[in-house]
What does this fold into?
Amino acid sequence: MTPIHLLLVDDHPLVREGLRAVLGAEPDMRIVAEAANGLEAVRLAQQHQPDVIIMDVLMPGQDGAAATADILRHNPAARVLILTSLTEIERILPTVQAGALGYVAKNRPPAELIAAIRTLHQGGVHLPGGLARRLLHAGSPIPATPPLDALTERELEILKLVAQGLGNDAIAAQLVISSRTVGVHVSHILDKLYLENRTQAALYALRHGLVSLHGSGFGDTGQLG
It folds into this structure.
């Protein structure tokens, strides 16, 4: 089994030590590098090409939102999981706009972080219900988009599954199509709706009533704020 390669990004050594202890004990995970700020994170992400990047928000030099944007500019396929103690939506919003695909509060049990890492690695999103609700109430980082009838029936079906947190392989298995075909459909969905990433797609689906906050992508556990 090929392990999930992780990059840890946090300016507090004790936090990184705790993450090493928790994640290093998982047989399917391997920490390939650690960074104490956003600038180091961008450099190490290019060097090591990790599967999942666990990113703090507030750091010296360059914060998590700016680092996420830079990492995705170099590698649009990178998967960034925000691990934060922040509750102010104004502080978290830039990371959504930058393209992060998952969010876990630092006061949550380790099992939630581990599950979120695996979800992102499989191509899904992890967006706690409390955060999704607050993003929508705040106007959310979703641009003005065409109505749902811009999508085909198959694209609408796949959008619902994306919003439930499923990755391409899981969607492919459920619909009995290839993962590559799912990826093409997801790209078409994002293009048609003028969305940047799967997080925005999940919020779009929630806003339009395609899924509820109790869908797997919007678990009520781990609410941020």
